[in-house]
Amino acid sequence: MVLADLGRRLNAAFLSLNRAPVVDEKVLDTTLKEITAALLEADVNVKLVASLRQNVKVKVKAALDGSDKSKDSNKKTLIQKVVFDELVHLVDPGIEPYKPKKGQPNVIMAVGLQGNGKTTTCTKLAVYYQKRGFKSCIVCADTFRAGAFDQTRQSATKAKVAYFGSYTETDPVVIAAQGVTKFKKERFDVIIVDTSGRHKQESELFQEMIQISAAVKPNMTVLVLDASIGQAAEAHSRAFKESADFGAIIVTKMDGHAKGGGAISAVAATKTPIIFLGVGEHLHDLDRFSPQPFISKLLGLGDMQGLMEHMQDLAKQNPDKQKEMAKKLEEGKLSIRDWREQIQNVMNMGPISKIASMIPGLPQELLAGSDEEGSLRMRRMIYITDSMSSKELDSDGSLFLETGKDGKPVGLTWRVTRVAKGSGTSVREVEELLCQYRMMAHMAKQAGGKNGWLQAMQKMQNVAGGRGRGANGMPTPAQIQAMQRAMPPGMLQQMQRQLRSGGGMQEMMKAMMQGQGDQFDMEEMQRMMSQMGGGLGGFPGIGGGMPNMADMFKVMGMGGGAGR
């Protein structure tokens, strides 16, 4: 994944800083040397890197030379926070991009070099806005490249998006004007104009781009930039800025192995914000870009805000099913059919590593290379449930168990063997699936009902004032205190017991991580988490309000948690 190496190297620099017994100017210089080397290798412009280094040194100098002799831990925190803020500043020009409004035509024109993925990105953009309730369409004004209109037609048809183009008209200005006029009359909200790819040395094509812009009068011009372009990004982005005056950047091919630093250079050179990242070949592989969450994910701090938005988007696609599922969970009921739907929802969320990168503090190495394996495992679970009858799917799993006179299960029924044969799996896999289902059903039972923790958590969240106000949607310490005061009697003690004993969490983690090999060990997981105890990846209190989990437990009265 692009920039993954950069994230690992930056993390390594901060881990070295955390291990330093004393923080002085020598330690600071060593840390900055590692950070600047990592940024330069990632193709970030040398002037930007030099500026970042100088800014960090100036901001922390007062703390290092201060007469108050502040603690080394505070100095480490300060250095980390300053570096975090400066990295955010690299990708954040501080300009708010244009946002389409419903009920009026919003014309977006895409420009860029040949082969940067403009046509594919235009379709992705149309799908993105369509999913959010906008009536979107595409105008293909690319008459230079053979097969451009065919590509637009095929991808737009697949995405069920309206499109306009011509096989006979050769003037792209005429096509663009006709298409935009047509879709404005038909009251489309988002009209995306795809133009020919052009190089900064092709003056005729650049003039053509200016003419198209004058004809369609776009609300926003978007520069589509390839992540692998490298240092050339700055010169090209400047040329496009002078001619088309684009208001936003979309970086494509972020799922490749390119270094990607060129995109950052383009942001700094043109003072233009990145709005989306192309992260795959499929129509839904377009992620909204936000500077702080992007740097958080890069440094292994997660992106809770992005994760919640991703889940909300999935919920919007089938609101009736989501309401039905929420009602069942509130009642504490979960059948095998319901659980199967939840597995399918997880599969629809995308690659496991993508979801894992959004979870704060989860070591990325834990899920490295496991996307294919995890996806196969979930598909096999679906195959098993496909071989079950309607009666079995709507049951609580008791049909698969033989019970003794005392009502306790003593073995498995013939149904397990039948399902294993029907699904092409083994009896052991069916047994594992049933065990995992029972675990989830038990959790649903504890969560649901009037006295369940789902209701208690809802009450606590209301007392705390809704969603987290800290960095990336995390709760602030004040919100955590309010939640602790609203916690029902006995719930705190129950959580403490579960933390000390593992209380089902270890079993659940083991079930989730099956397929990672026999080496997976909860003690190893806890050791890794404790290493990151300085605030999720060694960043205590970064971004103004992201609490580390140890502090969070202390505030809620849990003391040392599982470490006792």
What is the spatial order of strands in the main beta sheet? 3-2-4-1-5-6-7-8
Q: What integer is the average pLDDT?
A: 75
**How many angstroms does the end-to-end distance come to?**
38 Å
* Strand proportion: 5-15%
Low-pLDDT sequence parts: 498-564
Any overview of this molecule?
The structure is a single chain. With 564 residues, the chain is of the alpha/beta class. Helix content is 55%, strand content 9%. It has 25 helices and 10 strands. The strands form 2 sheets. Strands 3-2-4-1-5-6-7-8 form an 8-stranded mixed β-sheet, with helices on both faces. Strand 5, helix 9 and strand 6 form a beta-alpha-beta unit. It starts with a helix and ends in a 9-residue tail after the last helix.
Short structural description:
This protein is α/β, with parallel strands linked by helices.
What characteristics describe this protein?
alpha/beta, eight-stranded mixed beta sheet, disordered C terminus, two-stranded antiparallel ribbon, 25 helices, 564 residues, single chain, 10 strands, globular
